[in-house]
Amino acid sequence: MAMEFDPAAPLIPGGFMDLTQEDRRRRRAARHLAAAPVDRLTPSLAEAPTMAQVLEAVLPKLQSTVRLLQDLPQWASEATPSALGMHTATEAPLKAITDHADRLSTALEALRRYSAIDGHRVTLAEVDAAPLITDIVTRKLALRPGPLDLQIEVPRMRLDPLLVRGIAAGLTDAAITDARRAEDKIGFRALVAQDSLRLSVIHAGPPFDPGALTELFQAQGAAEQAQHPAAALGLAFVWRATALLGGALEVGVGFMGAGARITVVLPRS
Predict the structure, then answer these.
(1) How far apart are CA 64 and CA 103, in angstroms?
(2) What kind and span of H or E run contains 267?
(3) Closest CA to 140 of 62, 213, 203
(4) 86 has pLDDT over 90
(5) How far apart are CA 247 and CA 265, in angstroms?
(6) Is the C-alpha dihedral spanning 261, 262, 264, 265 positive or negative?
(7) Quick one: CA torsion of 9, 10, 14, 16, rounded to 10 degrees?
(8) For the whole model, what pTM was predicted?
(9) Among 43, 143, 214, 227, which is least packed, fewest CB within 10 Å?
(10) Which domains, ranges and CATH numbers included, belong to the chain?
(11) What are the angstrom distances between the C-alpha of 268 and each of 45, 190, 191, 202, 235?
């Protein structure tokens, strides 16, 4: 059931003990995140990277991944199990091929998504938002074995399905590529607060540089080899889509003051 989200509201009439352990954990996390300082940005289309700029930023790394995939079979045929530290000579290279192929596939999907909004006109429709967002987020996170923390509680509402799905996908791609260790937790929130829809991703990656927040969403990090193409493309999409929808971005710290958090704040139509 969709619910209005207000982290400052009293717990429930019955008191704290009437909540489940998961409810209490979410309340604590929500109150902490609500109190944590954030930097707020108002995206504009004038600052959104063009398709040519995006390609210039991500193509070198995509080409590097393709070359690596081409070289891995030869490397596998020449390697020995002892050199790889594996039981068989194929275990390590096959996993490497799978990992790099998955990253390449994710980046190409993000590239197609970004090209699809070039010249896109906002088209609002009455949509059951929770399944729409849940589908894209869970499909992406299902491939990752690490801990997840999902909270998607949004009602049926008017929105642009292409843009909202793309925002959810872009945020998730950024979190997956920045959460480098298997044990790193990824959180995703889709909640209604007052007159806005808030889509947040929270992960254990490095905190963002407060002096370079706009550049974070302009694919510039990919050109400098500091950002994976999927993350660069995803956040570039988030910037453009948020600008088209007249929304804002909030960037701050993640769980219990560690990691990073990005929130897209969209006005309810």
Answers:
(1) 12
(2) strand 260-267
(3) 203
(4) no
(5) 5
(6) positive
(7) 110
(8) 0.77
(9) 143
(10) 1-269 (3.30.565.10)
(11) 20, 13, 12, 22, 22
